[in-house]
Amino acid sequence: GDSVTQTEGLVTVTEGLPVKLNCTYQTTYLTIAFFWYVQYLNEAPQVLLKSSTDNKRTEHQGFHATLHKSSSSFHLQKSSAQLSDSALYYCAPLNYNQGKLIFGQGTKLSIKP
Amino acid sequence: GGIITQTPKFLIGQEGQKLTLKCQQNFNHDTMYWYRQDSGKGLRLIYYSITENDLQKGDLSEGYDASREKKSSFSLTVTSAQKNEMAVFLCASSNRPTLYFGSGTRLTVL
Fold first, then answer.
1. Using the beta-carbon criterion (under 8 Å), do B90 and A101 form an inter-chain contact?
2. Which structural domain range is residue A63 located in?
3. Into how many domains does chain A fold?
4. CB atoms inside a 10 Å sphere around CB B53
5. B84 shares contact with chain A (CB less than 8 Å)
6. C-beta atoms of B99 and A1 within 8 A
7. Which residues in B55-102 belong to E strands, given as ranges?
8. Measured on CA atoms in the order B105, B6, A43, A98, is the torsion positive or negative?
9. In this predicted model, what pLDDT tens digit does every residue of A37-90 receive, in sequence order?
10. B99 touches chain A (CB under 8 A)
């Protein structure tokens, strides 16, 4: 079946320094889109950014990610972390044939002053 | 815009009890989902429904039933609550490819 791996459960970064959250995936069906969702404390998950084009950089709210189908990866990055970036981040490929969105285990990002 | 409303926000049950969680959406989306959120385990799909009266099992469907009698509503039933169980159940709807989530129902079983 489809699977997503987010290798870090917790990432702690000092404010102003770069951030990278890893995401690799394995899918058995045609997958047309990849997402990063963010969940702030006591809120619902919401889309941070999405991509369906191989090797194209996608940006939103200072974050960026590039889908690399050759390495099955969709890592999330930001050049300068802010305190408000502290949240839970989920990587998710969309299995369009079945309409299912499979989520990774999530990475908690903690930004310290 | 639209909204997804989950009721109740907090649910406390007893071991062995049947518990029902409700979800309403006014996006007019066809597809709806139930996910369970546990710390360190991410979001796991319990059931989803592509249209009214359709039900599809996710990876975590054992111990749960679901019902989609109307396009706008999707219910989830915990058939027998497990002692000391604690989790957040998230409902979502989709206008492919993006999912929109409700704020969740937090379940505690005593």
1. no
2. 3-112
3. 1
4. 10
5. no
6. no
7. 56-57, 64-70, 73-78, 86-95, 98-101
8. positive
9. 999 998 999 999 999 899 999 999 999 999 998 888 999 999 999 999 999 999
10. yes
**Which residue carries 């950089």 as its tokens?**
A57
Which three-class secondary structure state does DSSP give residue A52?
coil
Residue of A44, A47, A105 with shortest CB distance to B98: A47
CA dist., res. A109 & res. A19, Å (int) = 9
Architecture category of domain B4-109 in CATH: Sandwich (2.60)
Tell me if A104 and B42 make a contact (CB, 8 A cut-off).
yes
Digit-coded pLDDT (tens) for A11-29: 999 999 999 999 998 877 6
Cβ atoms B56, B13 nearer than 8 A: no
As a whole number of angstroms, the distance between CA A56 and CA B51 comes to 33
- The residues that bridge with B56 in the sheet, in sequence order, are B48
Q: What is the pLDDT of residue A98?
A: 67
**Is the minimum CB–CB distance between B48 and chain A shorter than 8 Å?**
yes
